[in-house]
Design a protein that fits this description.
The chain has 200 residues and is of the alpha/beta class. The chain is built from 6 helices and 8 strands. The protein has a 6-stranded parallel beta sheet with strand order 3-2-1-4-5-8. A two-stranded antiparallel ribbon has the order 6-7. α5 packs parallel to α6.
Length: 200
C-alpha cells in the first residue's frame, strides 16, 4: 500500500486535467502595479506576469473570452484606483471590449458582476492567473466551485508573498504558493504548472 498522499479528486478517480483554452475563458486576477512596483511588490512577479501575458496572447489569438479583475482600494492606500499602483500592468492591460470586473473583496464573485458576465457568454470553466495565490486567486477559485464553475490555475502565472508563521518566523513566499496550489488541487481546481501546459 502506497504511503503517498492523494487528493480528494484522486481518491474519487476523477483527477481533472487542465482545461484547454478552446473550452474556457481566461481570468486574470489583480495583475496590478501594486504587486509589481508598489509596496506589495511580490517575489517572482515579473516571470508570473510574463506567463500571464503568454496566456493572454494565446487566448486573444484563439478568440477566447478574456476577463480582467481589478481590485479597488481607497484613496491614498493599496490599490488606489486613481494612482499608478492601482492600474493593471501594461503587459496584460485590457483591450477594448474585454470586460474589467471591479472588486473590493478577495473573492472576485463577491458583490461583483463576474457571475453575470460568465452566464452571459455561457462560460462554465475558467483558466486562472494572477495575484496573490493564497489570497484572491484561492478565494475566487474556491468560490467558483460553489457557483458551478470549473477552474484551472496556472501555477507559473501566479505569485504571492511571505507571511508570518505565528511563531516568530516566516512562511516563505514559494512555500505558501506551493501549499496553496496543493490545497486547491485537492478539490477545487486542476493545476497547470506553466502556460505551455494549458492545451489549445
Amino acid at each position: 500500500m502506497s504511503d503517498m498522499p492523494k487528493t480528494l479528486f484522486q481518491l474519487a478517480g476523477a483527477e481533472p486535467a487542465p482545461t484547454p483554452l478552446s473550452q474556457g475563458a481566461l481570468l486574470l486576477i489583480d495583475c496590478q502595479e501594486e504587486y509589481r512596483s508598489g509596496p506589495l511588490a511580490l517575489p517572482r512577479v515579473e516571470p508570473a506576469l510574463s506567463e500571464a501575458q503568454a496566456l493572454l496572447a494565446r487566448a486573444r489569438a484563439a478568440g477566447r473570452p478574456v476577463i480582467h479583475v481589478r481590485h479597488v482600494g481607497g484613496p491614498g492606500g493599496p490599490f488606489d484606483p486613481d494612482a499608478p499602483r492601482g492600474q493593471i500592468a501594461q503587459a496584460v492591460a485590457p483591450l477594448d471590449g474585454e470586460p474589467v470586473i471591479l472588486k473590493r473583496k478577495p473573492n472576485a464573485f463577491a458583490d461583483t458582476v463576474l457571475m453575470e458576465e460568465l452566464q452571459a457568454h455561457g462560460i462554465e470553466t475558467l483558466i486562472v492567473a494572477g495575484f496573490m495565490t493564497h489570497m484572491c486567486v484561492s478565494s475566487t477559485v474556491r468560490s467558483a466551485l460553489d457557483h458551478g464553475i470549473g477552474a484551472t490555475v496556472v501555477a507559473s502565472a501566479c505569485a504571492t508573498r511571505a507571511l508570518p508563521d505565528r511563531k516568530g518566523g516566516a512562511v516563505p513566499a514559494e512555500t505558501l504558493h506551493q501549499a496553496t496550489l496543493a490545497a486547491l488541487s485537492d478539490r477545487f481546481a486542476a493545476i497547470a504548472e506553466t502556460a505551455a501546459d494549458v492545451p489549445d
